[in-house]
Design goal:
Chain lengths: ~350, ~300
């Protein structure tokens, strides 16, 4: 058994600077004449706390702000408007890093390395194959119903930031784990025309030659300086994965030998009861994380490694492909061939 | 609602004051009925109707500015309320027959109230027709308040689809236009969302001013507007698009704090709606046309 050797953050840890991304969300609501006590209701926050500039929120508190915002402005564009000016933002050295990124590759690198400052609720991961670069968005610590909201925010954020820094619209393509919403107008206006729903994963993809194209606003020197300043801030001890994300990553790495809950609990140095309680606190079930990990690894092997059903079934220790197909359908709601078709964005 | 109600505090005081006065007067001159004499079914029916009428009156006052039509509607409902109220009091209190005002309140107030309400509704109808003329470019033949966008007070995409469906059923030629502000995201970035919101609202007013009475404008999403031009095709539609482009180009939007002028440009995609199209198909085509227009920084009519 392998121990999980990273650190993680939990829903109730206060590390999100209130005057950064949360303040931006609050401002969007204040601009529509909504009173601050309605916006902050149930979050345990006071507006004066935010103004002090040294108050920190937990992911759960930020999520409560999102829940309030969705209720107060039900017109469905709050997530997109928040995303539109989310990055580079005014978050000290991390924003400088993004704002000076000399190209897309290094902007993405900054976003991933400092994700728990720049995107604490929804975590970005980068994959590449010969032709494409993929940015996958993962639930860091139990978003539940606000997951779609955060996916909209993060994808709009990356789209708008890359457009602002590159000074041209990049040809991103978008895949969503959920079905096409009845109102998809915001998606078209804020993201673009290349939208693909029900593909099993929340992902943005772009052809790789865009990664290295120099950005007019970027400065390699300023980026290096900001990087040198930012690195000590995360330190070796700093948790960069949310709890759900940490378990998910552990599971994806141990996928060939199916893990039981007590085994994984041991890897996280916890008793099974404590581990279960933590999962519950983060609104997820062990089985659900395991299915998600398997589905995502399958998608990776299909699309990035270009493997066949037989190869993937064999890799995951399925006895035959029929069993594999059945299991895949349970995880994703689609057959492997349907899924391949959809993720090719054909 | 409460701020509007405050405008009408005198009328409300009058109606509820009279209701209270009639209670006091009845108690003074009449004597209470015995518990067993009260017909509870009548109390429920008449009392319930009186309460319902009072609620209607409050809803009307709470949603209308002051004016002649409001006065008539309130007075009409107020009299009807008083008549029902008095009728209901009789269930509890026996009033001697020589008290003329009791019978008067019951039998005269009701017809007077109904006459005033009828007269008020007639004027409300004329008022509504003139409001409809003002709203014509924002809504056509069909009203649904859930489809109104909170920022611009235009119809939203749902409303557009509804209208497109109705128009596609007729055989009249029609053009669908999609208007998008160029690089709007950077306005938000540089000047903040309040200025961005204000710009969207003012551009929507500007587009509205430049449309014909028969056209319809909706807010599609974000900084994108959809325009429906019935009976217009080809060159005529392009001509209209170019007029809109010029109008926005010359619009000197002022920053609310610094007074700095921010000039904007728009891109416009157009498509002709064909009979037999689904709304979603026309919208898809016009969004594609808009993408081409954005690349060319101008107008583009999709074939």
């Amino acid at each position: 058994m392998t121990m999980y050797c990273g650190r993680w953050y939990e829903r109730d840890e206060r590390f999100i600077a209130a005057h950064h991304q949360p303040a931006l969300l609050i401002d969007l609501l204040l601009a529509r004449d909504i009173s601050s006590h309605k916006i902050l209701r149930g979050s345990g926050l006071f507006y004066d706390d935010i103004l002090t500039g040294n108050h920190y929120l937990s992911p759960a508190q930020l999520q409560q702000l999102i829940i309030n915002g969705r209720k107060l402005l039900p017109e469905e564009d709050l997530s997109f408007r928040w995303g539109d000016s989310l990055w580079p933002g005014h978050y000290g050295v991390f924003s400088q890093l993004l704002a000076n990124a000399p190209d897309l590759a290094r902007a993405l690198q900054a976003l991933v390395d400092f994700r728990h400052f720049l995107s604490p609720l929804l975590s970005p991961r980068i994959y590449q194959d010969e032709r494409y670069c993929y940015v996958q968005w993962l639930d860091a610590c139990g978003l539940q119903d606000e997951r779609r909201f955060m996916v909209e925010t993060a994808m709009t954020g990356l789209t708008a930031t890359s457009r602002w820094l590159a000074q041209e619209t990049l040809p991103w393509r978008y895949g969503f784990s959920y079905a096409r919403p009845a109102q998809d107008e915001q998606y078209q206006v804020y993201l673009g025309p290349d939208l693909h729903f029900s593909v099993g994963v929340d992902v943005m993809m772009i052809e790789k030659h865009w990664l290295e194209k120099a950005w007019p606003r970027g400065s390699a020197t300023a980026y290096q300086v900001a990087l040198r300043e930012a690195q000590p801030l995360i330190g070796r001890e700093e948790a960069t994965n949310g709890f759900n994300e940490a378990v998910y990553h552990y599971l994806t790495r141990q996928l060939r030998t199916p893990q039981s809950l007590p085994e994984v609990a041991r890897a996280f140095a916890m008793s099974p009861a404590t581990f279960k309680r933590k999962l519950q606190k983060h609104h997820c079930h062990f089985q659900q994380l395991q299915d998600q990990a398997r589905l995502h690894v399958c998608l990776y092997l299909f699309h990035i490694n270009g493997w066949t059903n037989e190869q993937v079934a064999h890799y995951l220790n399925f006895n035959d492909t029929t069993n594999f197909r059945r299991a895949f359908k349970r995880w994703s709601g689609l057959t492997p061939s349907d899924s391949k078709q959809r993720l090719l964005f054909a | 609602m409460f701020s509007t109600l405050f405008l009408h505090r005198r009328k409300l005081l009058l109606v509820f004051g009279l209701a209270l006065a009639s209670v006091v007067a009845s108690v003074l001159v009449g004597d209470a009925k015995h518990w067993r004499e009260i017909d509870w079914l009548d109390v429920l029916g008449e009392g319930g109707s009186a309460v319902a009428v009072a609620i209607w009156m409050l809803l009307i006052l709470g949603s209308r500015p002051a004016g002649r039509v409001t006065d008539l509607l309130t007075l009409g409902l107020g009299f009807i309320f008083l008549a029902m109220w008095q009728d209901n009091l009789d269930e509890f209190i026996r009033i001697p027959a020589e008290q003329w005002w009791d019978a008067w309140l019951e039998s005269v107030a009701m017809p007077v109230g109904i006459a005033l309400l009828t007269y008020g509704l007639f004027h409300w109808h004329s008022e509504q027709l003139s409001i409809n003329r003002q709203l014509a470019k924002r809504e056509r033949l069909f009203r649904e308040h859930r489809f109104i966008d909170g920022l611009t007070q235009l119809g939203r995409a749902d409303y557009l689809k509804e209208q497109l469906q109705q128009h596609l059923n007729s055989t009249r030629p029609m053009t669908l236009m999609m208007v998008d502000i160029n690089d709007f995201s950077s306005v938000n970035r540089r000047f903040g969302h309040r200025e961005g919101d204000r710009l969207v609202r003012e551009i929507s007013e500007l587009l509205l001013l430049n449309l014909r009475q028969s056209d319809l404008i909706c807010r599609y999403a974000g900084d994108r507007f959809a325009l429906l031009l019935p009976g217009t095709q080809g060159e005529a539609a392009l001509q209209l698009a170019q007029e809109l482009e010029l109008a926005v180009q010359h619009f000197a939007f002022k920053h609310s704090q610094t007074g700095e002028t921010l000039y904007q440009r728009i891109s416009i995609g157009l498509t002709e709606c064909r009979p037999g199209d689904q709304p979603a198909q026309s919208i898809e085509r016009v969004n594609q046309a808009l993408l081409t227009a954005q690349r060319q920084h101008g107008c583009f009519l999709a074939a």
